[in-house]
What does this fold into?
Amino acid sequence: MSSLAVLGCMWGDEAKAKIVDYLGDRADYVVRFQGGSNAGHTIHHAGQKYVFHSVPSGILYPASKCVIASGVVIDPFALVDEIEALAGLGIDFTDRFYIDSRAGLVLPLHQELDNRSEKLLGDSKIGTTKRGIGPAYADIASRVAIRFGDLAYPDWLKERVVALYLHHHQNVVKSELEELLDRLSKAYDKLKSFVCATDELLRAAYMEDQYILFEGAQGTLLDLSYGTYPYVTSSNTISGGICTGAGIPPRMIDKCLGVYKAYSTRVGEGPFPTELLNEIGDKIRIRGNEFGSTTGRPRRVGYFDAVAAAYTANLNGLDAIAVTLLDVLSGVEDLKICTGYWIGDRRLESFPAHPLDLAQVKPEYLDMPGWEAEISDCRSLGKLPKAAREYLEVIQDLVQRPIELVSVGKDRNQTINLLAKK
Ligand code: IMP
It folds into this structure.
């Protein structure tokens, strides 16, 4: 096997970066294939906290090559800042970083449009990260986007930028246009050595038996097509998105590992059947430090939802799962897992596609015994309290996928690897 996809399987923030980092030592390539700087991937290692927005989480391993593939939208200014911040921390990756020339750009205009659209929507807003992600992807679909490769052709770039503003019924003043082009040119000078056709690079690497790790951003329930539309992000976050986002055929994805939190969280608006609007939710939020790493917003918190989890496992064709933040549930009384959805006297057979249906489902719960002990030092399943083991078994049975990894703390080594035990 030479490729693995690590995918967030709920509404994002499942601690995928921790899992990518844990598995990253064996990866020759770590690849971002969708999303943009809306993602906030946090890694704690050797007493240092790193937050990545566009740079793949494999960057901490000096031998890993990191790829931003064509399905990602790139804010060139934010990317330069991120690279410079990493260089400031002594992480040098100038000879192992690749950006696809076909990736779309996120420009200040997109951030303005994102902000404006959220304002206009008022109470119906999506609750975006306001990073301009939706408008940038919309422009790609409308064929008016500026792509990374355009930065190499100044005259063409100027024409495309003017056309982009016209498309949005905006006149760009000459001085503003010159300033934007100048900033883009300076950013490009710092990034141009990374630009290449990353699809070719990855296909060739796969043929040479190099190990490729595809790193999902956001989560399956935020997928543009199969998530809780319209409260979703604007890219395809599911395993199918890897093919279009990285330019590789389906057969090049050898294994899909889905990442689930031991409970649920969501930022932004939209239905959330197991949401806890009470002190249990508050306790989990505080214990789990559930505040967005990109926006700082408090995350909404709820019980583990096995109906949604089974849906996303099937959508992604998961081979196995990782359960993260199990340690946060120590000392939480009244633990429950959602096992079914009801609308009136009808038990639903599947996850509803319509937001109005999802908003009115009543969760059916299985009461679970809680546990008091702190578990961050446990390194094997046998060391966990019996109730924590039972909790994992129920998840495994309901999602119908084997659990391979359990995360019990922020640090790389605070991980129980069930494969290592076998
Ligand atoms: P956008 O991606 O900024 O357009 O936001 C659309 C929805 O996706 C909002 O509900 C955001 O809160 C959510 N979202 C975007 N990126 C992330 C992420 O990395 N983690 C969790 N939620 C996200």
